[in-house]
Specification:
Blueprint: H1 3-35, H2 44-66, H3 73-77, H4 81-116, H5 127-153
Length: 169
């Protein structure tokens, strides 16, 4: 795997972590403001729910890169190596095609939301900006899924049992 691709994966994972941190801080701050200061934070609910969607799609990109999505481990573990390869190709092909369809439909949703010019309830922040940020994460998931499928087809993918295990110190 090239260094540029590894850096892109690190950036995607960092963005997912940063947005999850923002959601956590926003939710915590909204609770503190409500119960300690008896007031609410403007758009805390809308911001947290839209950013949670962003986190899901960016986290999906990381899962697609690592192959940490749902797998058939029991069947895969009991199968001979050629069957394992076929299962990997089949499952990653299904994921890649499914993500392509989701990306296509979500692209339409982003465009529709942009054209409708929807805003959040309190501050009237453009909802399309949240959708677009989530769309970029979904695009990364599609790219990572396709790259993983290509690595498997070329026979360069580490399988779960062959992946190096790092012991805790």
């Amino acid at each position: 795997m090239s260094r540029a691709f590894q850096r892109a994966v690190a950036v995607v994972e960092s963005i997912a972590a940063a947005v999850l941190f923002i959601v956590t801080v926003l939710s915590f701050s909204a609770v503190i403001a409500r119960y300690v200061f008896n007031t609410g934070l403007p758009d805390a609910f809308d911001g947290a729910r839209y950013l949670l969607g962003v986190v899901i799609f960016w986290g999906l990109a990381s899962a697609c890169h690592r192959g940490d999505n749902i797998t058939m481990d029991a069947v895969w573990a009991l199968s001979p190596k050629p069957v394992k390869w076929l299962l990997d190709v089949f499952s990653n092909t299904v994921v890649t095609i499914g993500l392509a369809f989701l990306l296509w439909k979500f692209t339409e949703k982003v465009i529709d939301t942009w054209n409708a010019n929807h805003g959040t309830i309190d501050l009237d922040l453009p909802v399309a900006a949240f959708y677009a940020l989530a769309w970029v994460g979904l695009l990364a998931a599609q790219i990572f899924s396709a790259a993983r499928l290509l690595r498997i087809l070329r026979g360069r993918e580490d399988t779960p049992t062959e992946a190096p295990v790092h012991a805790a110190d």
